[in-house]
Amino acid sequence: MRRRSLRLRLLVTFGLSALILSSMFASLTYLGVQHVLVNEQQQTDLKQSYVNAALIRSTLYSSPPELAKLLNSIERSTASNVLVQTHHQWLSKSNGAATKDVSDAIVKEVDGGHATEQTLNIDGRIIFVVGVPIPAVETQVFEVFQLSNLEHTLRVLLQFMGAGALLTSLIGIGGGLWVSRRAVRPLEEVSQAAALIAQGELTTRLVVTRADEEVQQLTESFNAMVSQLVERLERDARFASDVSHELRSPLTTLATTASVLQQHRDELSPAGQESLNLLIADLSIFQALVEDLLEMARTDAGAAPLVMETVRAVELVRQSVRSGAQRHEINAPNVEVATDVGDPFVRVDRRRFERVMTNLIDNAHHYANGAVAVRVTNVEGQLAVNVDDNGAGVAVEERDQVFERFFRGRAAHDRGVARGTGLGLALVRDHVHAFSGTISILESPEGGARFQILLPVVEGIHP
Q1: Tell me: the pLDDT tens digits for 300-320?
Q2: I want to staple 422 with a disulfide (CB 3.0 to 4.6 A). Which of 147, 356, 367, 406 is the partner?
Q3: CB 98 within 8 A of CB 157
Q4: CB neighbours of 138 closer than 8 A, spacing ≥ 6?
Q5: At what angle do helices 6-62 and 67-78 cross, to 10 degrees?
Q6: pTM as predicted
């Protein structure tokens, strides 16, 4: 399962945290403001109702016919609707008043001589109803206040609070983006540096300016680790180089002695001749091993820098195949170039590329009855150099292992087959990687193994 990005998780955490906190704050603020505004409005309306009830009582005493005018006047001045009931009959009401706005429960409560108040939701309208009894004239006054203005104010407030919560969330996401970049950047730099080191760039070091204490400590620890690793690799490479150099003198002596014995071969007994054959075979392997160790030691220590050249790929392959075949005194395989290849250019070290082709041809000669052909094709815009044989092939589980140092697969357990040093293919992989290429093992059209080298083509150069 694909792991989620640390930066994405930090971003989501900051964004959600900001959204939750801002929403909680907005909700609490809205509820608090709503409570205060509604309570203040109701207290104001309640006081106004008692004042209006006193005016209605005075009018009923002094001039009952003027009651309708008074109610309409109250409606205009207070934006409320007034209803007057006497002996369970609606005596009068203002122009906008409706008896359905007054519930039976309120009428019953006020009829019992108790002033009451109630907030109702009538058809989606929030109203505040105040009932005031006037016992002296056996009358009840009901005043209905519309809270539409207050509702509008609360809706606007809610919109502003929602916009504020959204803005806070965006600020939180922005802060999360800034923090995640600052927090993740050192990890990305460490990852990039580690990748370069894994590719052989052993001079890579972390450089962090104005870093926090923790990042500075990580940088220093990483650089110290890499320095110790490089020092150990250089020490091992020097050791291998020194050992190889020290072995060359006795190896030369042994080779000379074996050559002298070979000249007097007929004077030896059959057992001596068989021993001489074994000595010469193992001596050849020993010489190849020392050469490979020296090459590998120079490469690891950086004593043999790359000499990169931009060359014609097809001609380079032909020359390298001829040279490799001549070196091992074997027949050179045919070089087959696909029609769509053209005449591309690649950037390689000529000597090391020739060593790559030599090792592959020699490997096919010893383990697969020789290379059938070297086929040059295009693969997804890259130059593919395929060394095909018709041998037994390479088992799928060994296709990565064969490029490891001193790995010889089934041949290591079989004295009856040709034995190698176990370093040839490891050198091939190292050299191909130095050209920014890749090497893999596939199946050849003949049923054997195909060693496929992919090299980037240099663009912008035309023959």
Answers
A1: 655 556 788 899 999 999 999
A2: 406
A3: no
A4: 86, 87
A5: 160
A6: 0.49
